[in-house]
Amino acid sequence: MYISLLGTRLTRAVPANVVALGLVSLVTDISSEMVTAVLPLYLVGALGLSLVQFGLLDGLYFGVTALVRLAGGHVADRWDRRKLVAGLGYGLSAVCKLGLLAAGGSAAALGLVLAADRTGKGLRTAPRDALITLSAPAERLGGAFGVHRAMDTVGAFLGPLAAFGVLTATAGAYDAVFVTSFCVAALGVLLLILYVRDRRGPLTARVRLRAAVMREAGFRRACLVAVALGLVTVSDSFVYLVLQRRLSIAPELFPLLPLGTAAAYLVLAVPLGRLADRFGRAAVFVAGHVALLAAYLVLMGPAWLVPVLVLHGLFYAATDGVLMALTGPMLPEGARTGGLALLQTGQATARMVSSILFGLLWAGAGEGTALAVMAAGLVMAAATAWRTLR
Predict the structure, then answer these.
(1) Is 22 exposed, middle or buried (0-12, 13-18, 19+ CB in 10 A)?
(2) What CA–CA distances, in Å, run from 21 to 28, 42, 193, 365?
């Protein structure tokens, strides 16, 4: 009864298709965050990878999506089949959870599996976000993305809890986490097939991506800003590793660290999305990076657990969906998936470079120096972003 009432209220606030996409993301994020929550400690602690090796794998986790996002966006626009392309991405990521079992302790095999998993994410993200922009009115996109990201974050909150529960019940069996994650991911694919509706336009609405991007100077500026900020964004895994080492957090409690980020994101995603619709998406987006800068400063100082995680969640709530809501309406419908894929490709490539650089800095000069370099870069990038986007 409560779930039915909640669903009714959500569909009044945003279109049903956005709610359906949010439900798919919720279930899928339970699966993916189960793995993400244990992966840093599994690779560094259980398998003994060095920080440089972990930085390379973490960068690969971001960067490989750059190889497929544009292709996926182009195919989705050309075929006008956004749901199909997204479904292929969700399915591939689900299968990769079993691939982690087959990889064992081989760093090379793990790299291949993580690359395939990120290929799936690269395929699905732009078509999914394009479907959201095509399912909600332009003036309410911030709120629509806020609702979607809030539902997505429920999954991000439940995933680490599920991983913690499985590890506790199985006395630390990582294989059990991977199998459970696969089962949950398969459910997400089924929900996509049953409940998400595609949004298909007339053939005349299709536009060449290059022509659309060349016409939209604002979109090009937003892409450059996203890349610059991505270069100075420390990945979640490194944030949690710094906290774990600074505060001597027990390994079995490590999977719970993402819960603080997810809780803050969940509470703030909808209010900040609506705030962005009302007062300006660019301002909220830049303010989110100011929150990230504050998280860096706390990490460099007392490393207080709760403030770092709350600021981390605030950063995501103010930037993730808000950037898509800001840039989506700049593009014609026939090139929207490819355009968002181009933007996300720039972000993914930048974050790949950031992870590799941070791992090298940490290994060579220490975590404090690595954070200081990122903080200085973020100050300059955020100031440039404000001047460019406002």
Answers:
(1) buried
(2) 10, 31, 11, 43
At 55-87, the pLDDT tens digits run 777 666 666 666 677 778 878 887 888 999 999
Cβ neighbours of residue 103 under 8 Å, at least 6 residues apart? 109, 110, 112, 113
Residue carrying structure tokens 């095509």: 134
Taken in order 279, 285, 286, 287, is the CA torsion positive or negative? positive
- For residues 88 and 52, give the distance between their C-alpha atoms in angstroms, rounded to a whole number: 32
| Cα–Cα distance, 146 to 324 (Å, whole number) | 11
Q: Which two tokens stand for residue 375?
A: 């903080």
Rounded Cα gap, residues 208 and 206, in angstroms: 7
Q: How far is residue 217's CA from residue 49's CA, in Å, rounded to a whole number?
A: 44
| All residues at 6 or more sequence positions from 208 whose CB lies less than 8 Å from its CB, including other chains | 335
Supply the pTM of this predicted model: 0.78
| pLDDT for res 5 | 39
Rounded CA-CA distance 36/164 in Å is: 12
DSSP one-letter code for 232: T
- Say if residues 21 and 147 touch (Cβ distance below 8 Å): no
Closest CA to 284 of 146, 136, 378: 146
**Better-predicted residue by pLDDT, 255 or 28:** 28
Q: Are 107 and 53 in contact (CB under 8 A)?
A: yes
The CA–CA distances, whole Å, from 73 to 136, 169, 211 equal: 20, 41, 15
Query: Residue 367 corresponds to which tokens in the numbers above?
Result: 């975590």
**Is domain 16-199+209-389 given the CATH code 1.20.1250.20 in the classification?**
yes
Q: CA dihedral defined by 245, 382, 288, 157, rounded to 10 degrees?
A: -40
CB atoms within 10 A of CB 316: 24
CA gap 265, 268 in Å, rounded: 5
Q: Return d(Cα 273, Cα 226) in angstroms, integer.
A: 18
- Residue 301 and residue 182 in contact, taking contact as beta carbons nearer than 8 Å: no
CB 19 within 8 A of CB 10: yes
